[in-house]
Amino acid sequence: MSAAVYRHPDGHEITVGDGLLTAYTSEGTAVSLPIGPDGLAALGAALIERAEAARNPELQYERAGYVLGCDLLDELVALFGHPQAKALRAVHNKLNALSKLEHFDSAAGGFAAAIVNTLEVGIAHLPQYEGDCP
What we know:
Number of strands: 4
Structural class: alpha+beta
Shape: elongated
Strand content: 5-15%
């Protein structure tokens, strides 16, 4: 039993049922792909994400900033014990990439969301010195 999940005013249609996702043109040409419940859920999530990005492009750049921040954290962990110059280069490269994204405020917010908590935990665990630092 197939159920229509989308009908375009021009006659195009998408149905789901019997383990198939079927798209029909207005002329009646059909293309079917096998899809299960997990595939339908993934497809639904992807469609919602694309619709939200189309309605609010800032979200796309916020996500891009978040990914840059996560990538930076991964690189810094991998560089632990290496010369600081490599870590500084990684930070420079990610900040440079961040500065090139559109909707900078949204992108910077995503970047900050990825790294701020990690920085706070790291700073809280720094050794404490009294007086002049060695």
